[in-house]
Amino acid sequence: MIKDHETLTSNSGNFTLGFFTPQNSTNRYVGIWCKTQDFVVWVANRNQPLINNSSGVVTISNDGNLVLLNGQKNVLWSSNVPNVTTNSSFQLSDDGNLVFCETLTGNSIWESFNHPTNVILPNMKLTSYKRSSEKVKLTSWKTPSDLSVGNFSLSVERLTISEVIIWNETRPYWRSGPWNNQIFIGIEDMGTLYLNGFHFEKDGTRGTGDLYFRADDCGLVIYRLNSQGQIHENSWSVEKEEWQFKSVTTL
């Protein structure tokens, strides 16, 4: 159980799960931040914040799901997995993945990496499925102070001639150009390892395409889709102990 003003930190110390309030807002959210509390990388209750309320609790409910409750014990967010064992626990991994798992076996029941918000972290995969319209994709915040789903999303499209598209609602807003098995050809100055170590892999058996980058390729680097539909590269400066930003998309 995690109450407001309590936190859960990864073993590396880089990532923390807890309650926070964005700038220019009084709403409380549960999320994961990296290094500094103002650098949020995942939000649970983005569409149902705690309003002027610091009595929220993250816990495991009677049906076995990981949930966020308000002071009246109403469920504001749930992992929403059917037929969950009641003998379960949750932990925050060193790569920022909140993992809800069976206590005895350690098998994963639910992971935040499969339900991203507006950030892609090292080892997280954005996935497109050939046989369905289902996608693991990024969705922007509405504004920096309103974390509900905004107008922009980013997804991998088409497994035959694959590319990354940023959508403004239902309209294409930016394209990476096709993947030629080494680079996305529409991105200027793109090396054979996209930016800091991006890779794109197709799995014909599963019928999927996965876009990801490895932590060992690039250190602590994170990509964020902002509320204006732009991708920013964010790298942690060990010397300055601060985040440094660079725009990736040219619109």
Automatic annotation (TrEMBL):
Coiled coil: none
Keywords (A to Z) from UniProt: Disulfide bond, Glycoprotein, Signal
Keyword Cell inner membrane (UniProt): no
GO biological process per UniProt: recognition of pollen
CDD domains: B_lectin
InterPro entries documented for this protein: Bulb-type_lectin_dom (IPR001480), Bulb-type_lectin_dom_sf (IPR036426), S_locus_glycoprot_dom (IPR000858)
Entry-linked Gene3D superfamilies: Bulb-type lectin domain
Name of the encoding gene: LOC113783974
Record keyword Signal present: yes
Protein's UniProt name: G-type lectin S-receptor-like serine/threonine-protein kinase At1g11330
Domain Bulb-type lectin, residue spans: 1-113
Pfam families associated with the record: B_lectin, S_locus_glycop
